[in-house]
Amino acid sequence: MLTVIHSRVHDGKTTEIINRIGELMRQGKRSVLIVPDQVTYAAERDICSQLGISGFSLCQVMSFNRFCEAVLRSAGKKCPRRLTDAGRMMLLERAVILKRDSLRIYGSVCRRSGFAQRMERMLALLKSCRISPDSLLEMCSRLPASLLKEKLSDTAELYRCYQELTGADYCDNNDLFGLAADCGQSPLLKDCRIFIDGFDSLTGQMLWLIQKLLRSCDITVSLSLDDSAPWLYSMQRRTMDGLVQAAANSGSVLRCIELPHINRGNSFDALHGLYGKAESAAAGGGIDFFQAPDTEAEIRHIAFDIRQKLKRGARYRDFAVACCDTSLISSVERIFAQYSLAVFCDTARPMQAQPAVQLLMSALEACRADNSQREMTEFLCNYLCPLPVDVSERLRVLISSLGLTNYELIEQCSRGSEETRAFLAGISGELLPLRVLRKALRGCKSARDFITAVWDFIQAVGLSGRVDKLISRCIENGLLAEADEYKQVWDNLTQQLEQLDMLLKDCPDCDPDMLISMLGRAFESQSCFVLPSTVDCITVGDPARSRFSGIKELYVIGAADPYFPVSDSGEGLLSPQELSRINRNEKVLSPDTEDASVRNTFLLFSMLLAPSVLHLSYALKKGRTQQQPGSLLERVLASVPVERRDADTQQEMLACPMGALEILASSERLTASQCAAMQALEMLRPGLLASVTSPVSDRVTDARALYGSIPISMSRLETQAECPLKNLLTGGLRMNEDTDYQSNAIDIGNIMHEALEHSVPELMQAGAAGRNAELARGIVEKNLYAAARSTHDGVMLHTARARLLCARLNKSVTAACRSIMEDLDTFKPFAFEVSFGRGKYPAIELDTRAGRVRLQGKIDRVDKSADGQALRIVDYKSSKHSITAKSVERGTTLQLPLYMIAMEKATGARGAAMYYQNCFGTGVSYSGLSCEDSPAPDKNALTQAEFRAVLDSAQDTAARLAADMLQGRTDTDGVITQGASSPCAYCAHSAVCSVRLSDTSQTEDED
Predict the structure, then answer these.
(1) d(Cα 341, Cα 336) in Å, to the nearest integer?
(2) How far apart are CA 303 and CA 362, in angstroms?
(3) Distance between CA 898 and CA 954 in Å, rounded?
(4) What pLDDT digit, counting tens, does each position of 536-559 carry?
(5) Can you tell me the distance from the alpha carbon of 451 to that of 688, in angstroms, rounded to the nearest whole number?
(6) pTM of the complete model
(7) Is 192 within 8 Å of 217 (Cβ atoms)?
């Protein structure tokens, strides 16, 4: 007997199935529950929960594939090895290589990236519809001469070749159905009831298997079906027709049971009418809607809402966030982290983009492409490359300057200077693993020879050890998800080599080029799945996944066109018109383009009904793009009594440190700003400002406790001059960016300073020899790469781009050192990294309206004239800087004049010049101010009086800025927001920029 239990989505079909399984258990009878792969664990959990039991043995929960394998084993038949996705891709790639010369249409495109994946999906579709190569050729013969006919002919040829390569020892998922259908007398099926639940529709293979099994056992199928919405349930209606036909062909009795509608008593009851007949008005509740001004505000509102519910006892795993636009996932992760919410981003990363895979594939390609350069460059740029950094950098320079090919680098180079050839001869041992691999590939006669050569290369370059160190470092830093990802990569790499050997161990016609292509296709089909670091976390990811997650509340972000609902990508080998032409008389291929559109909409529709509470939201603006509600969202808003829930914006922001300061930045009056600042500071550091007892309406009189130890640094004063708010964030609240393991401007500056600090003294000790270009290059290279390895976890050596930047910095610092050495006749370095206020020399003391303050600093270099009476201050910079009397008065260039004042007081010499030295770029340059009586005056040198006036102005400005900072001035009046000199361009706190907020509010008022 075939029983079909049908009802609307989420109207209790699974509950009915479990109740029937429970009744069979009480009678001591066996049953099998077949569900989709991803919900087998959830199904077992639901059975225990609903039946009130702690375990069970009379019911087996399986996927269709596992069920077919169990049937074969129970019948005593050999179960062929099931091919993985990578195995199918490797065999299909081999079929493409063998047949590409005979393909009429696909012959010219079959080598393009992505073709094999689309062909694999096409063959899976044909198998699921029970179409064999012979059936496809018969279909092709009935078509008139056309492009479609040629496509189907090529597909049939590749299909037949793929089947022959698979043979009898291997099978894929679709082949299992046919094998299991021939085992109707399997002991597993005797006196066993089969239940099928959780499938939106059934393929032709599934229906055929059900037809065969009906001759030996009873089957119950659950199906979502609602005659009031025929378009939405069209695929399910077709499945119902297939079940009717299967019952008729097997001579079984068909019984249909329609379950009554379940009313939740809230807005969910009206969702069933979105694509069908209108239903009676339902009570409100269960669904809410939030419309945000921009994406940041939308995500922040959701984070705050979840945080408030967690405080009331909810668990993280009760919530899921569905991002209709997957590009928003990273923003959700960032903003949720600000609210200290544990999230798991359900994403996958391509295996072919992983460093270990890239290293292996670039080495294989370099060994077979003698006349190319790209592959060797990719090998050298990989941060898992076994060659020393200086060697790989030198090789990349030779490739770009001389155009050396892979063969010349691996085997023998007869071009270039004698020095170049000597260098390549000297590193011959470093390149030996590549040379051995190239020779082994040339002598390969079988897949076993190829795999042995690849594994020997992996061992020779120590790839396993390098990956282990990477995993250990991730674990030490608490990056457990990244450590698991690298472990997946290594396991996948070894599995692909084992599977390649398993598939082709007896194949006589495998040349290395074919094997390399097959291995590459296998990696293209694989992904690394990021695992959650804890069980209790908020899932963020694709909307369709939330259907089976068991979550209680679902937040849908970005419910706006064109992402909601998701449209079909249309990446198939056949166009929608060609699929319609094939399906003109009957549904030969399913799903087709129309089915895909219905399926996407049904997935989203069923997603809406899965949780107990649904939250929909979208942003009016995404960047500069205006957003509109999506079509499904418009249906929801029109059909369901949903009221917009207004959020307490200030409360949401104050729940997050960054948001609290956003209020501070957007306040028009200083008193309001101070009020928000006090709340933010108390939340960040409870009790820090307990000594401040003045009312909110009064100005804060002393912020020394906030800014920490006194003296005050020069950079702190310049930041206060550029933007008081930025100074509060960075210097007061210490709101620095998290470590991101990427190179940045701070890393460049740190490496440059450290290299100069060590290199210049060494060159000076060398005397006249220090002016030698080769000696300078060697000393700088040693010190710079040592600094790079110790800065920011060696990030400047991890990627190709960072290493190239490091090489450019090496050249620039070398030029800077040579410039310093050539200038020794006028000024001689007196001291490096000179500290005052916390070292050998005293601080600068100033009387201000906030009291007496002391200034401290660290000078990169202090030079003295030959007679020791004139001082020159030099500050190293990694970009161009300038100083004028006006910039000193404003406070943005206080370092040089205050450094000069400190050193005049400490040494008794007079100031003669103060310069920024740009040490990065195509040329080294000085930029600053000098005095007319300097030993080397500039053409625009100042008079002695003008030079002293600049120093006096610096002291006055420093006193004013120090008082502003210590008295709590945080307004942004006068901040330059446009142009190259604006601090906003490089500020890490753009999210709290008052100018941006004020522009937004003005736009809203005008609207």
Answers:
(1) 5
(2) 43
(3) 7
(4) 788 887 665 555 556 888 888 887
(5) 64
(6) 0.63
(7) yes
